[in-house]
Amino acid sequence: MDYLDLGPVRVSTTPRTPAPDPDRYQLALVTGGLVLCDTAHPYEAASPATRTVVLQLPRTALPFRPERVDRLLAQRIPATRGTGAALAQFLGSVGAHAHGCGERELARLGSAALGLATACLAERLDVYDDLPAEAREEALLRQIDTYIEHNLGDPELTPGAVAARHHISLRRLHLLFQGRPAGVAATIRGRRLAAARADLLRPDLTRRPVHSIAARWGFSSAAVFSRAFRQAYGTSPTELRRRCVARKVNDPCAQRTCR
Length: 259
What we know:
259 residues; alpha+beta; six-stranded antiparallel beta sheet; 10 helices; 47% helix
């Protein structure tokens, strides 16, 4: 990943001195920590030998006064606990998770990144409790989204496990998802299916057995996976892969249409 446009935010792994931009902050993940920079004032980026993941944040998207945010500029933000750790984990693997995502999924990842960054900065400014209840709930939802996204392969990922990990009741977790098209369990299942479907369409994974892909994304058995897949997509995993492979054999240009 060199550059990703995630709707409200952008993510880059190309270390360089950015051009001045009065409309954005940059939150960089480097050597295990986070550093906030103001792109309105040019600065020297990390050495090219250092892998740096940079999250570009619109100033207007942060619910803080600029003078408050300025207190955090060039300070190291720990990435070993709390929302700092969640954000670091997200930035460290977003490139792999964004592979094969559509526009709406990328925008969802961007919203998750923005929510985590907002919560992280609020904690550092000691104003987390001052955020409006709606903003705090949104930040919590984004943490939950990130946790789900990065643990899809864990067969023990259940609504109960998600609630316990975030120190909330199962009832509150379900309430958080009330305004969404799908509940917690359905969200986990849908994202697992989408990830498995993307793998089935990858040319480099053609020889990987369907049951292996199912296990990779947390399904307890190939039979459970096949039933859920057919219900969601109207075809079996094997049939989808066979059709896609046949199209590529007959027309190499068809690779982009196997969806």
